Structures are given as C-alpha cells and as structure tokens.
Amino acid sequence: MTILVTGSAGFIGANFVLDWLAAHDEKVISLDKLTYAGNRQNLASLEGDARHLFVQGDIGDDALVAKLLAEHQPRAILNFAAESHVDRSIHGPEDFIQTNIVGTFRLLEAVRAYWNALPEADKQAFRFLHVSTDEVYGSLSPTDPAFKESNKYEPNSPYSASKAASDHLVRAYHHTYGLPVLTTNCSNNYGPYHFPEKLIPLIIHNALAGKPLPIYGDGQQIRDWLYVKDHCSAIRRVLEAGQLGETYNVGGWNEKANIDVVHTLCDILDQEQPRADGRSYREQITFVKDRPGHDRRYAIDASRLERELGWKPAETFETGIRKTVRWYLDNQAWVNNVTSGAYREWVGKQYA
Ligand code: NAD
Ligand code: DAU
C-alpha cells in the first residue's frame, strides 16, 4: 500500500509524513516543488528509510504526476501543496493562482485519469484528500458563531480566494465525475517546522534575535490556533472514515487575539531563555501598518468532526505553545538555515 503526499516538504506536509511513518508501515511518495517554503531538511530523519521516496516536482506537471501514479499505484493522495502566506499573496497573487488553482486542477485531471483506469475494488477504496483552510469562509464579527461546514464561502485575500477556488474544483470533480474526494478546512496551525514568515515562529525568531516584534494594526484580530500534530491526526481520521464528497472543519477551540499570543510567547521566552539584560521580551513589541483587507476574526466549529468521526485535539493552546517554543529553542540550526538568503529579502520588503 502506498500514499502520495504533495507539499510534503512544507510545514504541515512534513509533520504529516513524519507522523504517518512513525505509526504506519505504508510507503509514502512525497511530491514537492521545493519553493522557498519547502525544505528537504524537514524530512531529513527519513533519509535511508525505504518506505519514503522524495520527488521534487510541481503538482501542475501532469506528465510527472501521471508517471508517479502509474509507477506507484497509490491508494490515496493527500494534497497539501499550496502557496500559503496571505501577505505574499497580497504582494504577488500570480503564484497563488498558478499553484492553488491551476496546479490543483492539473493534479485533479491526472488523478481522474488514473482513478478511472483502476480495477473496481481499488476505485472504491481510492481517496483524494484536499487540505484547505478556514479562511475560505471570510471574516467573523465578535458575536458571530464559529464557522460551520455549511457557512458560505466569502474569501477576502488572493490566498483565500485561490484556496476557495481549489475547494470548488475538488467538490466539482466529485459531483461530476464521482472522484472520491474529502476536504478538510482547518484553522491556524502552529508547531515544529513552521516557516518564520508566519506570526508565531516569526515572533520567536525576532525575539531571540533582539529584533522588533511586529503586530499588524491594533493586534486585536482573532485566530483559532491548533497544534499541527492535531491537524495531522484529524486528516488521518478523515482519510480513514470521512464521508465521500464531504468537508470537515478542523480546529482546536482556541480563539486568541494576536496581541495575547505574542504576550504569551514573550512570557514563555522570559522563563525559558531570559534576555541578557533581564528585561521582558514584551519590550520588543512594535505596532506596524495593518495588513490590507485584514480578516478580523476566524473561529472554527469542529463539532462535526468530533460527533461523526470521534476526533478531538490532544493539545491545549497552553501545552502546544510551550512545546513549540521549546522546539524552536532546540532547533536554532534549522531556523538559521531557513532564515538565510531569500528570507531576508522577504522580511526587508514586508516590514520596510
Ligand atoms: P507551506 O507553505 O509551509 O508548505 C507548502 C509546501 O508546498 C511547500 O513545501 C512548497 O514547496 C510546496 N509547494 C508549493 N507549490 C507547489 C507546487 N506547485 N507543486 C508541489 N509543491 C508545491 O504551507 P503549510 O502551512 O504547510 O500548508 C499546507 C496546506 O495546508 C496548504 O494547502 C494550506 O493552504 C493549508 N492550511 C494551512 C494552515 C496553516 O495554518 N499553515 C491552516 C489550514 C490549512
Ligand atoms: O487560518 C488558516 C490560515 O492561517 C492558513 O490558511 C494560512 O496558510 C496560514 O498562513 C494562516 O494565515 P494567517 O494570515 O492567519 O497567519 P499569519 O501567521 O500570517 O498571521 C496570523 C495573524 O497575525 C494575522 O492576523 C496577521 C497577524 N500578523 C502576522 C504577521 C506575519 C501580525 O500581526 N504580524 C506579523 O508580522
């Protein structure tokens, strides 16, 4: 048995593959383009593991995908590959359209051809699981109920619009062609291997480097945080038991204002790695220009996943965030490696 995982050198994809192979003896084919966000080092512990094959390539390269499918005959495909950073989508949406929309379309086409040719029993068992985001639902007011699967799509950024388009394509391939698809819409993840362009790893990195901790606008925007390994366990559960053609919201019931997340990180760092001058990392907090079109609040209602598939997160925000800070303190070589070169150009442009 084999699964194919796209975007496996990125933050969530890498965590998924590492956790999968820690628990299953099933071969994994990793397909990743290795953009700035993809890092072979994330999968370094699998070097020499015969159960894992890494292939550098684009989900939009239909000839490559068709060849991989024909050679390895996967029973499932998990699509994590995407351009994922909202701020980058504001500076330059083109790559988001190419990978998230055109790339997903080409991947679906290659998968449809492969699936159509499978023997009936394998056809029935096959799954295409598409990993998506809560951002497709738009922004909530402080009193709105959390997003349910039945909420309408109201994406506000080029990133979320491109993910919404990909979700629609996946849905249409089920409805029209019968492709056995599943979609998950998850809230903000955090944990090991999170690229330091995103809030939590950026704050940890800047704090330790003695740099300003940039808070967009008033810092009162709310995100709903989930430890990445809980997201991975939810995906495994949906793959195993999800109803075909359905979508599942994934979240940790952890709504936090950005400023509170940053205060928590500063307080943990004050305990774990105090500043040389004995003052708090909170002194590095700097309010900066807001993100254009910044969504005010996301909140996920994950009750369907719990009710129908019995999934619950294992970590609270308090336990997960401590583990995360510890991981970054223990993995400074990884941070130094990913924050060289192109990363500095991005930070220069975004926070100029
Ligand atoms: P990431 O940016 O860390 O990783 C994306 C990976 O995809 C990288 O390894 C990159 O090289 C690869 N990739 C990009 N374009 C590709 C292409 N055309 N072909 C093959 N590979 C390509 O992203 P992430 O945070 O790990 O997110 C993974 C998925 O989960 C995305 O689909 C994202 O929309 C979704 N998601 C992320 C979060 C979050 O909080 N990070 C929350 C919910 C959903
Ligand atoms: O909700 C799920 C989404 O979460 C995923 O689909 C995206 O791929 C992922 O990047 C993430 O999007 P966000 O925009 O919510 O994450 P980010 O870490 O970029 O920002 C989190 C919040 O922190 C957001 O309100 C913007 C704010 N922020 C971010 C940065 C980078 C700051 O205040 N300062 C910053 O420097």
From TrEMBL:
Query: Is NAD one of the keywords?
Result: yes
Q: What is this protein called?
A: dTDP-glucose 4,6-dehydratase
Which cofactors does this gene product need?
NAD(+)
- EC number(s) stated in the UniProt entry for this protein: 4.2.1.46
GO molecular function of the protein, one example?
dTDP-glucose 4,6-dehydratase activity
Q: Which GO terms describe its biological process?
A: nucleotide-sugar metabolic process
Per UniProt, the keywords (alphabetical) are:
Lyase, NAD
CDD domains given in the database record: dTDP_GD_SDR_e
- What does the record give as the reaction this protein catalyses? dTDP-alpha-D-glucose = dTDP-4-dehydro-6-deoxy-alpha-D-glucose + H2O
Which parts of the chain span the membrane according to its record?
none
Q: Which domain of life is it from?
A: Bacteria
| Family the UniProt entry places it in | Belongs to the NAD(P)-dependent epimerase/dehydratase family. dTDP-glucose dehydratase subfamily.
Question: Is-annotated flag, keyword Lyase?
Answer: yes
**Domain NAD(P)-binding spans what residues?**
4-324
